[in-house]
Amino acid sequence: MNYNHSSPRREPGKPKRLIDPSAGLSASTPMPMQMPMPQSPYMYNQQQIPMDNGMAPEYGFKPQPYGYTSPPMQHYQPPENLGDDYASPQFATQLLTQPMVTNMAVQYGNALVGSGKQQFERYVPVSALKYYFAVDTNYVIAKLALLFFPFAHKDWSVKYEQDAPLQPRFETNAPDMYIPTMAFLTYVVSAVLVSGTQERFTPEQLSILASTALAWGVIELIVHIVTLYVMNLETSLSTLDLLAYCGYKYVGMNAALLISLVFRKFGYYLVWLYCSASLAFFLMRSLKLRVIPQNHSPYTASGNKRRLYFILFVAAIQPVLMWWLSYHLV
Q1: Are residues 243 and 114 in the same domain?
Q2: Where is this region: Disordered (predicted)?
């Protein structure tokens, strides 16, 4: 017969052990015998180590005794208008007026502008464009008179100062980009005006005219550059010089289109012929000093024939482009 010491037999008449402690507390009959507490895991050598041994808990809370009920948790309500001081415009103004913040913003802005300027100048010669737009009212009037009446002009040389040509406002013979740019914009407006008087204007025509003129200008510039390369000509002309000289044709085109409003096709072709002749004469005399060096012999010399052909080609193609870009508007 096996005798189990760990599970003694319950004698009759003794109360039954309760599993739920709360049930035992609510019972009306007293409990003659207390329940033995379960062995705590903090037992060492049969001695119980107290939970609160004077050391701070690792996770910021203390274990509570058995049967302890914590009070209900109250939700934290932040005070009202806490962020109004930080979101108010007054706070932003005060922050921007701080010297340290202002200096940082100025340094960052200068660095950003400097880097952007360097990247932009890699593709667009800003310093060179300043020279071509250095004009004033007197220069514009004198240049327009020279374009319409070049036959009476005598001195076509460009004056230099310290190996650099004078700015257009100080030298009438110097090429500029202001008159070609304004003449191009005026051409678009004049073309729209002529089409409107004939009741043929559409909104799409404005963009078509501008893009077509720009495309032909780019093609013309590329043709001239390739011609100089193929003919192996070394000149003092730059790309912007060629662009400026080729842009003067819009002045004659505007005059022809405006005259056509009154005299129709007869007035258009009459002004077109005169402006074509004056522009061709102006280009031949202006390009002569830039393409043919002064220390060479006459034009028919072996080295100057190709330069002469290039000048004649540039002067002859301008009337053709003037007619091609404006004849369909009349």
Answers
A1: no
A2: 1-32
104 and 216 share a domain?
no
The model's pTM is: 0.64
pLDDT in tens, the chain (330 residues): 444 444 444 555 554 554 444 444 444 445 555 555 555 444 444 444 455 555 555 544 555 555 555 555 555 555 555 455 545 566 566 666 667 767 777 777 777 766 666 665 665 667 778 889 999 999 999 999 999 999 989 889 888 877 778 889 999 999 999 999 999 999 999 998 998 888 888 888 888 999 999 999 999 999 999 999 998 888 888 899 999 999 999 999 999 999 999 998 999 999 999 999 999 999 999 999 888 876 644 544 556 788 999 999 999 999 999 999 999 888
Closest by CA to 319, choosing from 286, 285, 282, 277, is 277
CA distance 214 to 200: 22
Q: How far apart are CA 50 and CA 40, in angstroms?
A: 10
* Domain of residue 247, residue span: 128-329
Quote the number of domains for the chain. Answer: 2
Return the amino acid letter for 208.
I
